[in-house]
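It is worth pausing here to work through a concrete case rather than discussing structure prediction in the abstract. The textbook approach is simple: state the sequence, then state the predicted structure, then interpret. We follow exactly that order.
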Amino acid sequence: MVAAWRMVSRVGILVLGSCLARVAAQTLKLSSTLTIEKTDSKTNTYEQVASLLEHAREKKLDANVIRFLDNTVQQLSKVLDAAKVVEEKRGTEVPKDFTPQKYRVKPMPKLQAKKITVKKITAKELRARLQQGKDIHFDEPLLVTNATALFNSEDWDNVRRHWSASRIMGDAELEKELKIEYWPPDKARARLVGNMLQMEEPELVSFSRYVVVCFHGTPAKPKLPGQNTEHCEQTVDAQSMVRNASELKELSIFPEISNALPMQGEFRTRMLKAAAEELPSIIGKNLKKWEKSRGHLSYQYFVFGPSGSGDKLHAENGLPFYDILIHGSRRWLLLTEEEMQRVAEKAREALEFDKTSAYMFFEEKLPELKEEFGLKKYMEANQQAGDLVIVPSGWFRVSLSLADSISYYETILSKQSTLRSITDNNVWRPQIRQYQLAYCYDPKDLHLLPGVEKGSDLYNWLKDAIAKVKLDELLPGILSVLLQCGSTLVLDKEMPQLKVEGLTVCTKAVWKQCRSQLKTKLKEKGSTASLAWLPEEPPKSLSDLRSSEAQRVVDEL
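Step two, the predicted structure:
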């Protein structure tokens, strides 16, 4: 064994001697590898290696070291150039789908409606109708195929690029500020506490987290459309998904339409801004909750979700709307309120179809409604990317995403009858238990309310109820009436065709009465709020609103 070890040692020495002789005899070339991970910053790497090269030159290191670093810098420069080309291409490339491949949920084309019964109209025909001075109100729903013709040149491609999941996830500010109200499928939205039904709060998640939860599967367990995704559709105020209003400009495809909602929303925004200093002392700890429910008027929305998602059958608060599908594919079913009520009387207890997700509605409930409960008067449509659906006021609808989808929809308020209905429904409509206007009157003056006779059952009930209302409830109630009435009265100059004076319960006298009552009740509370921001005369335009600071200057003069 000793002899064998000596032999191996001699061989090793000979080999080592041979290598040393080669190193001494010729130029030695070495190569090294610089690995840049996907998450690494190529720009930072380039700058750091370039800094090393500059240092090597300043310290007059060996020429071979300088050449090595210089070669690395040149290669990194080529990498940056290539990345720039890829980024520019990505910036101009129009994504074909809402989600990138990594997050994409399998489409469900087999669930498309077999027969389209919604009336079709071309974009050209719709534009001609609007240019002739006709409005967008129709008696029945419409499907505008290939509505991309309604967009200006290149605007449609810009819209599809901007409203893709990849772009939204890559927006650092949006990722930080936007919170999606996500309801896990196993979480109840309300629970019984004693004899009271207490509403639960959703989880607030970022957009990227929402995408991971609702879209992302694994190779071993892919996200399957249907019961795994039916709860994932989101309807989000469009204003919350932009940094400035210009991002929505390309989606304003109907300049011919006079929509009162933007002006009403602006009135509320300006009024709350003017009242910002005094509202905390008037409303108290529930200010944020009140502002969220009453202070902001939403009329522009994005609806997005994975394949298999969709909300239950519902109506759009009495307002007509249009929906343009940016990415994906959807199936729609629409029916009138009369048909909805007729079938509901027979089927609600048996099927609870109006509480069922879109996926379960089309998979299970629709066949039963047709076969067992006589559902006949309904319409269906398949909406593809670029198609526009117009839904009249009063129609119920349910839509199912057949692929990962995102659409933009906008509600419209341009008819007198609709304005009257919406306003009164939010202020004074005893038939539907809306009594908020009563907050503006003392119990002894309730007979001044529309339709209330002194000594009647309604009068006596209201008198007893109002006497029990505490100031913490009364003050926000009066402010809510002023917000709603002000946003209607303010249309007088800008939209004279609506003839708002005397159209609703929100008359000039009601404005003055509510303001006077608010001032009286604030005095009872011991508040020092001046209400300088709240016009004494009913507002007729947005310019009638002053900031509290501007009002103080006027008062001092």
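Step three, interpretation. The two ends are 114 Å apart (CA to CA). The chain has 19 helices and 15 strands.
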